[in-house]
């Protein structure tokens, strides 16, 4: 099948390469002329035959919004746009409606697999009309793992990005649990081999998983992670998961705590904990640490 790929970064570039490896013809467009096959979206559309399929793999938010808008002016009735970025599921309905006015079809696709996907295949979760999903099925089949699985048509427009958002929320919780286990074993004076413990858990245990494999890989490179700062960014999916949990009155304490742990990681100091220290001092005369003190760490202090 021939398709256009918009965005040839770490994800889009590797996906285009995997599709080509599997015999598909990909015309790629990127702002970086070094990696782009064409100079503009208009040129990309001109290189495809109707009915066209264009896969967007650009950052969520404004970059995706403007690409959808521009494509709406370039594509014809019967063409198909697939948004494979990490867009908010609420945006999918807006994008689908804007394109529908011109007869252009829309499918949202959550894509998981990171930089390993080119080799291992990706997990693809899609939302949209059955006939649109069926039309792009050869592309989904090429992107998913060779051994099968890794694909779901989760529902109508928005469902693909909704389940990808939940997947990423679960990812937050799982990573936070491994992180806390790491810190606890390191803090104890009873475990001599923390990397070896994680490594042993890769076989036979309840917590064996790809995230655990990746943690072991990181610990092989730096057993105490001394080269890293304890600072973690987020790109929005955890926030959307927590927001969706609030909207549906679904208790999601693990995912919420994992998100808040990332916020805390970005603080040099904790204004909230200053308030705790101030209040303990006010009501009980308890000692405080000043800005220049080394904090005294004792159990339960
Ligand atoms: O989709 C992904 C993995 O499944 C991305 O890596 C995602 O960006 C990770 O989210 P965050 O940056 O918020 O940790």
TrEMBL record:
It holds the Pfam family NAD_binding_2. The keyword Chaperone does not apply. This is Decarboxylating 6-phosphogluconate dehydrogenase. Belongs to the 6-phosphogluconate dehydrogenase family. Gene3D superfamilies: N-(1-d-carboxylethyl)-l-norvaline Dehydrogenase, domain 2, NAD(P)-binding Rossmann-like Domain. Residues 160-301 form the 6-phosphogluconate dehydrogenase C-terminal domain. InterPro entries: 3-OH-isobutyrate_DH-rel_CS, 6-PGluconate_DH-like_C_sf, 6DGDH_YqeC, 6PGD_dom2, 6PGDH_C, 6PGDH_NADP-bd, NAD(P)-bd_dom_sf, Pgluconate_DH. It comes from Nocardiopsis endophytica. The keyword Oxidoreductase applies. PROSITE patterns: 3_HYDROXYISOBUT_DH. Keywords: Gluconate utilization, Oxidoreductase. It comes from the Bacteria.
């Amino acid at each position: 099948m021939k398709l256009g790929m918009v965005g040839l970064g770490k994800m889009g570039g590797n996906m285009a390469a995997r599709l080509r490896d599997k015999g598909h013809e990909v015309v790629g467009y990127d702002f970086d002329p070094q990696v782009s096959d064409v100079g503009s979206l208009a040129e990309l559309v001109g290189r495809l035959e109707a009915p066209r399929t264009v896969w967007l793999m650009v950052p969520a938010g404004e970059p995706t919004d403007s690409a959808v808008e521009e494509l709406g002016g370039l594509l014809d009735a019967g063409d198909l746009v697939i948004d494979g970025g990490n867009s908010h599921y609420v945006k999918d309905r807006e994008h689908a409606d804007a394109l529908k006015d011109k007869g252009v079809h829309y499918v949202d696709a959550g894509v998981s697999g990171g930089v390993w996907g080119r080799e291992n295949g990706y997990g693809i979760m899609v939302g949209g009309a059955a006939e649109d999903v069926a039309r792009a099925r050869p592309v989904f089949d090429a992107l998913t793992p060779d051994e099968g699985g890794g694909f779901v048509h989760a529902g109508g427009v928005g469902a693909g990005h909704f389940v990808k958002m939940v997947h990423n929320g679960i990812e937050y919780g799982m990573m936070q649990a491994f992180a806390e286990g790491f810190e606890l074993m390191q803090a104890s004076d009873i475990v001599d081999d923390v990397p070896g413990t994680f490594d042993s858990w890769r076989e036979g245990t309840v917590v064996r998983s790809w995230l655990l494999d990746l943690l072991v890989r990181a610990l092989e490179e730096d057993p105490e992670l001394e080269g890293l700062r304890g600072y973690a960014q987020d790109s929005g999916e955890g926030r959307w998961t927590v927001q969706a949990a609030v909207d549906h009155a679904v208790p999601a304490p693990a995912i919420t705590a994992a998100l808040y742990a990332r916020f805390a990681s970005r603080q040099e100091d904790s204004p909230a904990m200053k308030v705790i220290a101030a209040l303990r001092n006010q009501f009980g005369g308890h000692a405080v640490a000043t800005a220049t003190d080394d904090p005294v760490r004792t159990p339960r202090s």
